[in-house]
Fold this sequence. Notes:
The chain has about 100 residues and is mainly alpha-helical. About 70% of the residues lie in helices and about 0% in strands. The protein has one domain.
Amino acid sequence: xxxxxxxxxxxxxxxxxxxxxxxxxxxxxxxxxxxxxxxxxxxxxxxxxxxxxxxxxxxxxxxxxxxxxxxxxxxxxxxxxxxxxxxxxxxxxxxx
Length: 96
């Protein structure tokens, strides 16, 4: 029968191997994610037919416009649930 000390030693070895494998897989994952990000930027560059600073400026401008639209957007669907018109102020669809 294996002693508790021997079991602990084996588990420690197993844990260290797994930690090393996780570290290696994390490194590979990060490299794959970086490559994916790079390819996404290349796809955007192709789509907008822009490169470098021009692409960055276009994305930045689009983001600013999106933020402005969000600020001026009407009430959310959750707030208007049950309303038949935006002119009535009904917060509970079951009230009547």
